[in-house]
# Entry
Amino acid sequence: MEEQVAAYVAREYKQPLPPPPSEAGLPGILRKNLFATPFDAIVTVVLGLFSVWAVWKLVQWGLTTAVFTGANREACLAGEGGAVGACWAFVRAKFGQFVYGLYPIGQRWRVDITLLLLVALVLPFAIPRVPYKRLNVILLVVVFPFVALVLLTGGRFNISGGWVAFLFALAAFVSAVLAAGNAAAVPRLLKAATAMAVLSLAFLLASNIISSARVDLLAFRFSLLSLLALLAALASVVASLLSVRGTERTGAWTIRVLIPPLAVAAIIVLLSGDFGLTHVPTNLWGGLLVTLVVALTGIAASLPLGILLALGRRSHLPAIRLFSIIFIEFWRGVPLITVLFMSAFMIPLFLPDGVNFNQLLRALIGVALFSAAYMAEVIRGGLQAIPKGQHEAAQALGLGYWQMMRLIVLPQALKLVIPGIVNTFIGLFKDTSLVYIIGLADLLGTVRRGFSDPNWITPTTAATGLVFAAFVYWVFCFSMSRYSIYMERRLDTGHKR
# Structure
């Protein structure tokens, strides 16, 4: 006799059973994460009591017993049997100095306009859905720096002939590099353009060693050697233009080659023009203004320089690879304090006759070069993470080296190293406090200078000022960190784990 097997077949979807009462709700979360074992319970209780005590002390010091108003130190001194916490009256009285430094009070509206323009350009750039990104980038990277420079300084720079020749020599090099990107350009003329650009720099270096007669030309005073350097730079630009004539899309390539010298000419006219603004020298700048100028300049300059150095270190050309390696290893092997001293005292020794940088500009150059070396290694890590098949696929499509890097490799590499890039930016922002050692009053330096004011010397003044400075640094660094996390999540399209 056959046995019959009973079977049960569900005819509808069964709802999941609720979790055990011991694992649900707030009690379950606390038990699982904080009181899972006796040791966890002891650690939770001890750290909880310490956290409550620390928070209460901070609230008591910063709010309960703090002083928020007052005209001088008397308001922040403890009364009879009383204890006074933070002296926020000191921060309130010195707030203008902490933000603007010694910038003239009647001219501080220029700083405010500059900061508003910066915010108005950065916010649309940072929000992905805002249109006209290319125009935004041009305004932020190309136009804004010179508008900010004129607003903050007042313009009317006394530009010497050496400066004019130096800028045109750099433009000649850029034009020659752009012309070399045209595969149909005349090689002989490209070599002539490069040789004339090198000769221009040689004349400039010689003008720093050999004294020569002075020549006035177009409201600029040149030495004879710097005038020869200018003529050689202009000849280099002409050779670059001739090298792309008769090639495909001659007009477009001519515009590319002409952009650097025309940009230099516009910069010279802009900086030497009179806009009716009172001149404010950079030695009066200070506080948050200097911190933002140094940090933003270092960030804006270190990223493109770091990309070029990373590509150069991976180049198959021995000279470019060796130069990139030496540059990176030299700047990474020297402390930033030493770099700042070198930039402050040694840069003038290498400049041609008639070319000079003020102390703030020297610090900006040192910070940018120092940060670029670290940025190069971060980006090189991203480049090494890209599979070789990506390069081979780009080459199979007929893309050139720069097209492959711009369209295929770099977008993927930069996406992978967003945390490292932002980490370098955050470190750079905090390292701006070191410019105080060469006489520049950044935010921290201005706060420290306020401690020596006899009207505000109290036992809590220093602690209050340092807490204020730390909070400002934290706001900027935390904002960069959160934005980098947002960009990581937005761009995380193919590396899920």
